[in-house]
Amino acid sequence: MSPPAPPATIADLDALGEDARAELIDGVIYERPVTTFDHANIAALVVADLLPPYQRGRGGPGDWWIQGENDFVAAGAEAFRPDALGWRKARMADPPRAGRVPLVADWVLEVISESNRDHDEVVKRAAYARIGVAYWWLVDPAGRSLVAHVLEGGVWRVTGRHEGAAIARVAPFALVELSMAEWWR
Fold it and tell me: What digits encode the pLDDT tens for the residues 92-104?
């Protein structure tokens, strides 16, 4: 019987190349499937709604960095790639110009599909809580829903469930009305 393989490292992830669609969570490399149009469209629409008030300060506080899919590193040992994410500028005043962001995101959005449902709802749910992501949104296009979570004492608490054509105001971005009807083609 051979000994178990050692946990994967950031160096192992880097060896896949900068174009690899992969994450490193708890010593395991997960290759991500190609994003579908609907999946990417929902994430893009959310980012488009949040950028003006929360990053640019147009009709809002402008105190966040908001991005579509990007990588961030936790404790120098794990790399995550949510569908959209954000950092408070008070925690990251000057973002890096290259490479993965070396700071855990304050907010993440995951759009689930059948190919990534278990990964997002089980693996990432536990990992995001463990590393201290403050807000986690889970969008289910098949169920036409958004479930918003806040991390309290290391445990996720649901702060809102929104379905169908709802107009949602969701922490930490409650100034913005999200028109969910636009998400579902």
Answer: 999 999 999 999 9
Total number of domains constituting the chain = 1
Q: Give me the residue label for tokens 């958004």.
A: 146
73 strand-pairing partners: 79
CB 44 within 8 A of CB 55: no
Question: What range defines the domain where residue 135 resides?
Answer: 36-182
Q: What is the dihedral of CA 117, 123, 124, 127, to 10 degrees?
A: 170
Whole-number Å distance between alpha carbons of 96 and 76: 15
- Give a yes or no: residue 119 inside a domain: yes
Retrieve residue 170's tokens: 């969701």
* Residue 173: exposure state from Cβ atoms within 10 A (0-12, 13-18, ≥19): buried
According to DSSP, the residues that pair with 178 across neighbouring strands are: 168
Q: What is the CATH number of the domain that holds 175?
A: 3.90.1570.10
140-181 pLDDT per residue, tens: 999 999 999 999 999 999 999 999 999 999 999 999 999 999
Handedness of CA 30, 33, 39, 44 (dihedral sign): positive
